[in-house]
Amino acid sequence: MATATDSRVLEVLGRVFGYDAFRGDQADIIRQVCDGGDALVLMPTGGGKSLCYQIPSIVRPGTGVVVSPLIALMQDQVEALEQLGVRAAFLNSTQSPDERRAVEGALLAGELDLLYLAPERLPVAAGLLDRAEIALFAIDEAHCVAQWGHDFRPDYLQLGLLHERWPDVPRIALTATATSQTRVEIAERLGLTEAPMFVSSFDRPNIQYRIAPKQDAKAQLLRLITQEHPGEAGIVYCLSRNSVERTAEWLTAQGIAALPYHAGLDAATRATNQARFLREDGIVMTATIAFGMGIDKPDVRFVAHLDLPKSIEGYYQETGRAGRDGLPSTAWLAYGLQDVVQQRRMIEDGEGDAQRKRAQSMHLDAMLALCETITCRRQQLLRYFGQESEPCGNCDTCLEPPESWDGTVPAQKLLSTIVRLGQRRQSFGAGHIIDILRGKETPRMQQRGHDELSTFGIGTDLGDTEWRGIVRQMLAQRLLESVGEYGVLGLTDGSREVLRGERTVLLRREPERRAGAAGVSRR
Ligand code: ADP
Ligand code: ZN
């Protein structure tokens, strides 16, 4: 490539963006696109994907068209660019016809460096784009095109046609989340199989990953905040709006500066809370996953999950909001039996066809395997993204290696109980089955005659918590199945192997309940 472009690119990096060097693969990617080539870019959140298409858009003649699903962020991105003196605009459904006409006029007059477009606007805007000079197409959040991914958007499928309609315009697809399977799908669906792929390291060495069994989640969270991150900024993710509200109220009552954020709050409240989180020190944002996309706050010291994320991609993206400044940060997750039951039920009851549900189920399995692993969490996380690494020394399993134990006998006791109940055409959730094993003489037990089962009281050697841990791990390993609204336990092919003595059940020994510790601490 011409050195003239190289120096032009560096000049833009410094003059417009105020940086003096590229990071990682940025220089190679930008050179590739400036030269008119396609690229598929896999870079973790915070890695610096935006510059990879912003600079070529500025340097190449015409307007760079950025397809992004995050309408809510377009305005912020455009404003940030305008402040740098870049001529940027967006087109989406939130605008009035007048506003849209003004943007279209600017585009046709060649007065825009960048135009952000929601994918659903593309069919409407195609005629307009035909008449404009286009520098490149950037496809942001490219994993949205993958049906096996965790964030599929049907509108993305048509992006495969960009190349046919505008064969001479280079395309750059970017994503922060892609397993090798998703990568292949992205490349195929977008017609980028020939394009060079730029894969950055997904490791975030300054983030300490910890996953703890859920006991008293709020108390565990409070210990994490007060003992390890007092007065520091953090994000607490909860699954439902309701639990967001309750957690924020509870934290506030404990003297923590906590604010709620979820899609059910009115726009003004959301904007205020977000602005306070960004500007003030030490705010703990309690939020659903609606919060965080595009939030660029460098000093988030911890990300806590009170509920199980639906996929490793989601977990990685959410925890990735911690420690963008490179300083030590914590990713902490509490999860319990109920989470597994609830997530399975959500998949079962959710929308989508059988294939979709199977994909969701596989995502959950991978997430559960990460939770139950007895080896390095980071190693497993990175392997999921196709990256091999050594044990990290900065995750809970490295710092305090869990023991594994042979849980085949208790597993068989539990499964036999389910078999016995099944012979009576009955099924129950974990609570009652554990009561049977532990020989609890409750009225319900006698009423049903369960105290006469041959497995009644054969599990008194283990406590309630231990049994719940066994059920949870067996669910995670698919040695048990939780069905229906009440989380009734059922058998799988795997359970039958265990019952026949053909399979050993290796379980992770739960760490002792240690006073005062929310898991391993940095000190
Ligand atoms: P991503 O989209 O991959 O999550 P961004 O493009 O938002 O990441 O970049 C993350 C942060 O890193 C931003 O604050 C950005 O300004 C900064 N950044 C990107 N490239 C560079 C660079 N070459 N030098 C310094 N900072 C950079
Ligand atoms: Zn590790």
Name the hetero compounds present. adenosine-5'-diphosphate, zinc ion
Strand order of the largest sheet: 3-4-2-5-6-1-7
Distance between the termini: 51 Å
Strand coverage percent: 5-15%
Shape: elongated
Describe what you observe in this structure.
With about 525 residues, this protein is an alpha/beta fold. It is built from 21 helices and 17 strands. The chain has helices spanning about 5-15, 25-35, 50-60, 70-85, 95-110, 120-130, 160-165, 180-190, 215-230, 240-255, 265-280, 310-320, 335-350, 355-370, 375-385, 395-400, 410-425, 430-435, 445-450, 465-475, 495-500, and strands at about 40, 65, 90, 115, 135-140, 170-175, 195-200, 205-215, 235, 260, 285, 300-305, 330-335, 405, 480-485, 490, 505-510. Helix 2 (about 25-35) packs parallel to helix 3. The structure holds adenosine-5'-diphosphate and zinc ion. Adenosine-5'-diphosphate (ADP) binds near residues 43, 46, 49 and 50.
List the topology elements.
Blueprint: H1 3-15, H2 26-34, E1 39-42, H3 49-59, E2 63-67, H4 71-83, E3 88-91, H5 97-108, E4 114-117, H6 122-131, E5 134-139, H7 162-165, E6 171-175, H8 180-189, E7 197-199, E8 207-213, H9 217-228, E9 234-237, H10 241-253, E10 258-261, H11 267-279, E11 284-287, E12 302-305, H12 312-319, E13 329-335, H13 337-349, H14 354-372, H15 377-384, H16 396-399, E14 404-406, H17 408-423, H18 430-437, H19 443-448, H20 464-476, E15 481-483, E16 488-490, H21 493-499, E17 506-508
Parallel strand pairs: 1-6, 1-7, 2-4, 2-5, 3-4, 5-6, 8-13, 9-11, 9-12, 10-11, 12-13
Antiparallel strand pairs: 14-17, 15-16
